[in-house]
Amino acid sequence: MRARDPYRPAHGSDAFHVEHYDLDLTYRVAANRLSGTATLRLRTLEQLSEISLDLNGFTVESVAVAGARLGRYRHRARKLVVKLAEDAAAGAELQVSVRYSGNPRPVPSPWGPLGWEELEDGALVASQPTGASSWFPCNDHPADKATYRTCLTVDSPYFVLAHGELTGRRVRAATTTWVYEERHPTSAYLATVQVGPYEELSLGASPVPQRAVLPPSLKKLARRRLAHHGKIMRTFTRLFGPYPFAGYALVVTADDLEIPVEAQGVSIFGANHLTDDDGERLVPHELAHQWFGNSVSVSSWQHIWLNEGFACYAEWLWSEAAGEASAADLARTWHARLTTLAQDLVLADPGPENIFDDRVYKRGALTLHALRSALGDETFFDLVRDWTARHRYGAVDTDDFRDLVEEHAARAGGEPLAARSAALLTRWLDSAELPAL
Ligand SMILES: [Zn+2]
């Protein structure tokens, strides 16, 4: 958990761990202006003379520290550095409060702008991988997971969704304050708020409530397109193990969006995804991220195939469960397509610029399918459920996966199957050449 991410070294810190974020914010929709206070309860992991937080833009109005004496602070180049008057010892618990205001702006990245985004009427937050600092000061590292209380005041007609459970809603004359509490450890990039002229539509009740949050004009279409959502949820619970959070909300914005993105207990779709063909496969894809990515998180973006390979394979598993193309058919189709592309990507270390390359997704899914074929369904799905149980709410890397595969393969088929599985993973994960299926 302590290693700063070698793929995104400018983001996050390995010197402290944030245990809890308390965000008390006001958002004026028409002006796209966000203001308020973020209070971080954190624990130092080494002796520290300063706390370095990610914060993109904004005017920092004041900083207060409890548990140590505040020195000075400076805010530039997307970093808010809070100096302490005296060093804090390793293991010290500090509270840092930052009062700030301004127009939230997306964080630039090789994959385009990330994080807070103004909509035609409202705002969304979709921060994967490094957009969290577009709206609050944070330790923007996927393995630094914290609990949250998100309190957002907006103009009264607007609906606010944040991650976690709604624990309070105070309506005043012109504004409404929405309070959400997240008790599950959450990576900063998965923290989210969604603001819009939204209503709710139930998509299923078992094993947890599932709902769409969307403009009323899209309800009829969503009811038809998402009619089978409860079935996807039950299928995935059977295959992947218990759903890790209290509920699931699928947000559909009135605006069109390029791609859907996952957040904690939430995914964000554009209106276009309710009508185009791709939307169909992306609904199970985003839901699967609740297990793979959100509950079991990567310890570095280097290991993103563990998120996207599983999410892509989940699309194939749903297709199979729904009586459409089988996972084996889809694997053959995608394998054939990958043979026509450049074979210069190593799944276990694709390079920082390539973490969202489609080959990471498809080759990741093919790796899982090849492993399933080698182990047999019973051992493979036992392994998957053990993966989500053992690393629930934690952070993992590719070697954790190899270790678990070895353990399950040895139990099912002794040393020969363990050796064959390890060799299979080496072929799929560690070399650029595409193995035969
Ligand atoms: Zn994905």
From TrEMBL:
The enzyme's E.C. designation: 3.4.11.2
Source organism, top-level taxon: Bacteria
UniProt KW keywords: Cytoplasm, Hydrolase, Metal-binding, Metalloprotease, Protease, Zinc
CDD domains attached to this UniProt entry: M1_APN_like
Subcellular locations according to the entry: Cytoplasm
Cofactor section: Zn(2+)
InterPro entries documented for this protein: Aminopeptidase_N-like_N (IPR045357), Aminopeptidase_N-like_N_sf (IPR042097), M1_LTA4H (IPR034015), Peptidase_M1 (IPR001930), Peptidase_M1_dom (IPR014782), Peptidase_M4/M1_CTD_sf (IPR027268)
Gene3D superfamilies, sorted: Neutral Protease Domain 2, tricorn interacting facor f3 domain
UniProt-listed SUPFAM superfamilies: Leukotriene A4 hydrolase N-terminal domain, Metalloproteases ('zincins'), catalytic domain
Domain Aminopeptidase N-like N-terminal intervals: 19-190
Domain Peptidase M1 membrane alanine aminopeptidase, chain residue ranges per copy: 232-408
Mitochondrion listed as a keyword: no
Reaction(s) catalysed by this chain's protein: Release of an N-terminal amino acid, Xaa-|-Yaa- from a peptide, amide or arylamide. Xaa is preferably Ala, but may be most amino acids including Pro (slow action). When a terminal hydrophobic residue is followed by a prolyl residue, the two may be released as an intact Xaa-Pro dipeptide
Similarity-based family: Belongs to the peptidase M1 family.
PANTHER family, A to Z: LEUKOTRIENE A-4 HYDROLASE
Protein name in UniProt: Aminopeptidase N
Gene source species: Georgenia daeguensis
